């Protein structure tokens, strides 16, 4: 395994570990998801250059666009839950209540 693949794998794995072990606040979960998306974006950006293919250069831009949409939706949900519940703790959020 080359050093670049190891770095991307480690970045993604740290995002998953942070998401599973530090799930107290919604903001920390969103930051871990954003770190995972950033690792995938960087890996997809380097993938066409290593294969010397020019046809896959638009794929990272689509992923970056979806990542920005995911981040804005997550922050909007965090603001809404903080206003209604008073905090952003994940254990206080119950999807069955209105």
From TrEMBL:
Which terms does the UniProt entry file under GO BP? ATP synthesis coupled electron transport
* Residues spanning the membrane: 6-22, 29-47, 59-81
The cellular location(s) given in this protein's UniProt record come to: Mitochondrion inner membrane; Mitochondrion membrane
What's a GO cellular component annotated to this UniProt protein? respiratory chain complex
- Provide the E.C. number(s) assigned to this enzyme: 7.1.1.2
User: What keywords is this UniProt entry annotated with?
Assistant: Electron transport, Membrane, Mitochondrion, Mitochondrion inner membrane, NAD, Respiratory chain, Translocase, Transmembrane, Transmembrane helix, Transport, Ubiquinone
Q: Name the enzyme group at the top EC level.
A: translocase
What GO MF annotations does this protein's record show?
NADH dehydrogenase (ubiquinone) activity; oxidoreductase activity, acting on NAD(P)H
Q: How is it placed in the membrane, per its record?
A: Multi-pass membrane protein
**Pfam families, A to Z:** Oxidored_q2 (PF00420)
Top-rank lineage group of the source organism: Eukaryota
Catalytic activity entry: a ubiquinone + NADH + 5 H(+)(in) = a ubiquinol + NAD(+) + 4 H(+)(out)
* PANTHER family membership: NADH-UBIQUINONE OXIDOREDUCTASE CHAIN 4L, NADH-UBIQUINONE OXIDOREDUCTASE SUBUNIT ND4L
Q: Which family does it belong to?
A: Belongs to the complex I subunit 4L family.
UniProt function note:
Core subunit of the mitochondrial membrane respiratory chain NADH dehydrogenase (Complex I) which catalyzes electron transfer from NADH through the respiratory chain, using ubiquinone as an electron acceptor. Part of the enzyme membrane arm which is embedded in the lipid bilayer and involved in proton translocation.
Which protein, by its recorded name, is this?
NADH-ubiquinone oxidoreductase chain 4L
- Please name the source species: Pseudohynobius puxiongensis
Taxonomic path: Eukaryota, Metazoa, Chordata, Craniata, Vertebrata
Underlying gene:
NADH4L
């Amino acid at each position: 395994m080359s050093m670049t693949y190891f770095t991307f794998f480690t970045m993604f794995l740290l995002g998953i570990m942070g998401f599973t072990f530090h799930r107290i606040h919604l903001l920390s979960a969103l930051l871990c998801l954003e770190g995972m998306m950033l690792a995938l974006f960087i890996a997809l950006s380097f993938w066409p250059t290593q294969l010397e293919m020019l046809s896959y250069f638009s794929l990272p831009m689509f992923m970056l666009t979806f990542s920005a949409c995911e981040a804005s939706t997550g922050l909007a949900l965090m603001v809404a839950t903080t206003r209604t519940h008073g905090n952003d703790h994940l254990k206080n959020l119950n999807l069955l209540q209105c």
